[in-house]
């Protein structure tokens, strides 16, 4: 979820310190074994050293179940070989970074304070090679034959300056399921940024969310960045992205995505290991970046996508045919200002783009603000363009005041194509999206557009704080009945999953939640994902399947992969797998079936 962001340029020596954030108060029955995750700011490593460092009982990469009791006592960490670039340019630029982070732009705001952002289960973990897992509850359904991947931020280096949740290097957490047995693996997406910083031993590439606030800090960081480029420390042409947001499978390739860069092709080895193949530009036809939320038509197998940016055209639409071959760009010049356009939707004939109140304005930096911010005076719009348009001549915009859509759930056509329906969460407090996500409330709405009259009607489908909505993938672009959403408690933590029946809104527009599963005290998950029990059966019920997610217990430090019965009124857990390592909270996931894994 990293609009025009890469990761983070800050960080050089600060005194070694540890900041711990305990989880919420324990219920009396769970009192004896409180756990703490911690963030440790490391000392500057020497040129080539074997270092033995100390930390709290929860180390820099806490591993969930292996965490020790709450204590401020220290223990030895395993020694590790650290290779650090100590050339004169590196030393100079890192020293400037230290000055900027400590004196010009220290992490004062909560949204960019790593002590807050990386507390509890947001703190990073180490890579984990394929490791066998125990099924501790129930049994894994036979239709779960493949691998579930979840993407999310996991900073390679712990920050010594401002850090936003969206800034971390992408890490994939995959559970491979075969014959009822599970293997778990966590690996970084080996992006250009990750690779050069790992080789250097320190962060190099800056990030727009936490690195450019106010003119002085922005000018200072841009000067250091330019110096690093001129000194040959990195080449921005090779990409600055994180690939930390989501995944997509089309054209027989699996992609790790982040909207500030090109996709990265990844694959799964036979032993369950995750391998990064490399950055992919589709034979030189894809430029700069691509959305992290392409839409795949389940019938035609085409993928539809876009990119956006701070210079005209602010929006560019394109697609890939069923073989994964990119088709020509369609620039959209009728979007006249740069907008944070994270997601979109498709129907059988249209693509729908939400232009929201969050935009990109470098002028905001003059007043000490961020170049990405909310404009409460902006009138939000929905733009419709034919899926196979050659240009934007048929693009239509509809004003929908107060509709701020960051994630789209689904869209379809009715009345012979005269009506377009969009289902999506509306961010009611959009001004908090980047700074205080815990204050965000997302209300799932049904928006109906009459293409003949231009009238737009909308109404809420639930009063709950819901986001990360998913459907049965077979119903993308056609009318669906059921939606599965994460419950924000508060965002970005997900305390449970609910099932919505959209048909109820057609009767009396009442609350549409028909099933619910709350994970329990101190337990939080992520985006759910729906898996059909019989994906090749066209007569199967839409909700005949399972909902899966990773769930973490902040009291015990244990993470699990849970499988819920999508038809059950309680979304009953039918299987649970204990994971060998903690899974930090992240963003979006995807289940890839075995027959598709074999095509990678």
Automatic annotation (TrEMBL):
Metal-binding among keywords: yes
Residue ranges the record marks as coiled coil: none
Sorted UniProt keywords: Dioxygenase, Iron, Metal-binding, Oxidoreductase
Binding-site residues for Fe cation, renumbered to this chain: 293, 342, 407, 588
Pfam family, one: RPE65
Region (Disordered): 51-73
Domain of life per record: Eukaryota
InterPro entries in alphabetical order: Carotenoid_Oase
Protein name: Carotenoid cleavage dioxygenase 4
């Amino acid at each position: 979820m990293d609009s025009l962001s890469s990761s983070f340029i800050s960080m050089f020596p600060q005194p070694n310190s540890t900041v711990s954030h305990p989880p919420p108060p324990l219920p009396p029955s769970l009192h004896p074994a409180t756990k703490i995750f911690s963030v440790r700011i490391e000392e500057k490593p020497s040129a080539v050293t074997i270092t033995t460092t100390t930390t709290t009982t929860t180390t820099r990469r806490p591993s969930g179940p292996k965490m020790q009791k709450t204590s401020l006592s220290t223990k030895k960490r395993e020694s590790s070989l650290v290779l650090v670039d100590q050339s004169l340019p590196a030393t100079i630029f890192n020293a400037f970074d230290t000055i900027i982070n400590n004196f010009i732009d220290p992490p004062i705001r909560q949204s960019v304070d790593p002590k807050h952002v990386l507390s509890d289960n947001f703190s990073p973990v180490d890579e984990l090679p394929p490791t066998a897992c125990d099924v501790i509850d129930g049994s894994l359904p036979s239709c779960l034959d493949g691998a579930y991947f979840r993407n999310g931020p996991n900073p390679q280096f712990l920050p010594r300056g401002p850090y936003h949740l969206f800034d971390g290097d992408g890490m994939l957490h995959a559970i491979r399921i075969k014959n009822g047995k599970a293997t778990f693996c966590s690996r970084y997406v080996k992006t250009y940024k990750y690779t050069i910083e790992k080789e250097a031993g320190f962060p190099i590439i800056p990030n727009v969310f936490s690195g450019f606030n106010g003119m002085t800090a922005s000018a200072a960081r841009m000067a250091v960045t330019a110096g690093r480029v001129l000194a040959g420390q990195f080449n921005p042409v090779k990409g600055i992205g994180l690939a930390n947001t989501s995944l997509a499978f089309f054209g027989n390739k699996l992609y790790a995505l982040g909207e500030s860069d090109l996709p990265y092709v990844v694959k799964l080895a036979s032993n369950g290991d995750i391998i990064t193949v490399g950055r992919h530009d589709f034979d030189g036809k894809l430029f700069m970046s691509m959305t992290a939320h392409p839409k795949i038509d389940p019938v035609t197998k085409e993928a539809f996508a876009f990119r956006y940016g701070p210079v005209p055209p602010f929006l560019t639409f394109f697609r890939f045919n069923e073989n994964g071959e990119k088709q020509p760009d369609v620039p959209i010049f009728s979007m006249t200002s740069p907008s944070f356009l994270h997601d979109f939707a498709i129907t059988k004939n249209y693509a729908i783009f939400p232009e929201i109140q969050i935009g990109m304005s470098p002028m905001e930096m003059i007043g000490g603000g961020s170049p990405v911010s909310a404009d409460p005076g902006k009138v939000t719009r929905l733009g419709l363009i034919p899926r196979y348009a050659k240009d934007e001549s048929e693009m239509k915009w509809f004003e929908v005041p107060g509709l701020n859509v960051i994630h789209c759930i689904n869209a379809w056509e009715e009345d012979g194509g005269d009506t377009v329906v969009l289902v999506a969460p509306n961010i009611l407090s959009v001004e908090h999206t980047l700074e205080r996500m815990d204050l965000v409330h997302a209300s799932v709405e049904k928006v109906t557009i009459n293409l003949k009259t231009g009238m737009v009607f909308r109404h809420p489908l639930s009063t709950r704080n819901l986001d990360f909505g998913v459907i049965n993938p077979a119903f993308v672009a056609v009318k669906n009945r059921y939606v599965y959403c994460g419950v924000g408690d508060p965002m970005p933590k997900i305390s449970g999953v609910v099932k919505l029946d959209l048909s109820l809104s057609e009767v009396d527009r009442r609350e549409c939640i028909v099933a619910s599963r709350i994970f329990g005290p101190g337990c939080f998950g992520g985006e759910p994902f729906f898996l059909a029990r019989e994906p090749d059966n066209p007569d199967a019920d839409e909700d005949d399947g399972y909902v899966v997610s990773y769930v973490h217990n902040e009291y015990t430090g244990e993470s699990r992969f849970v499988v819920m019965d999508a038809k059950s009124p309680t979304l009953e857990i039918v299987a649970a797998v204990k994971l060998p390592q903690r899974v930090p909270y992240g963003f979006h996931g995807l289940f890839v079936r075995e027959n598709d894994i074999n095509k990678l």
